Amino acid sequence: MDELLAKATQGVDPDSPGAFIHIFLNLMNMIPWVALFWWNLGFIAVGALLGWWRGRLLTGIVWALVLGPIGWIVVLAAPKSARPPPLPR
Fold it and tell me: What transmembrane ranges does the database entry give (predicted)?
């Protein structure tokens, strides 16, 4: 924890008015944003696949985007889309 605090407060005067913003930006710079982006795309792809399989493609994408892997459980727990058979011409 001391290492994290040292990295977050590196180059910041705690008594300055903008110290919070500088510490916040230092913390945000430590987050692996590229890896999180690709993981999120993977979660959305699996959610789309599950939603397509259950007949609710958009629902699968939205739940996976909002909740990640927990959204997959929501999509799988929902009943399959009951589409009526097509009418004869």
Answer: 30-50, 57-78
Q: What pLDDT score does 75 carry?
A: 92
Please tell me the total count of domains within the chain.
Answer: 2
8 A C-beta contact, residue 71 and residue 45: no
What residue numbers bound the domain in which 8 lies? 1-31
Q: In angstroms, rounded to a whole number, what is the distance separating the alpha carbons of residues 51 and 64?
A: 10
In a domain, 87, yes or no: no
pLDDT tens-digit map of 11-47: 888 888 988 898 899 889 999 999 999 999 999 999 9
Query: Is 88 within a domain?
Result: no
- Side-chain half-sphere exposure of 19, counting CA atoms within 13 A: 8
The model's pTM is: 0.71
Rounded CA-CA distance 50/86 in Å is 24
